[in-house]
């Protein structure tokens, strides 16, 4: 029983790490998009 709990916790932690990584990737992409949009506005 305790082993199952440990395994579930490990899986949940892995999910949180994946979400955190995805969150960072999304933030990076958003910042790149904003920079690109500003560059386009300046170019116009």
TrEMBL record:
It comes from Cetraspora pellucida. This is 16040_t:CDS:1. It comes from the Eukaryota.
């Amino acid at each position: 029983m305790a082993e199952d709990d440990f395994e579930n916790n490990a899986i949940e932690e892995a999910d949180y790490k994946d979400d955190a990584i995805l969150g960072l990737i999304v933030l990076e992409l958003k910042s790149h998009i904003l920079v690109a949009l500003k560059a386009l506005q300046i170019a116009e």
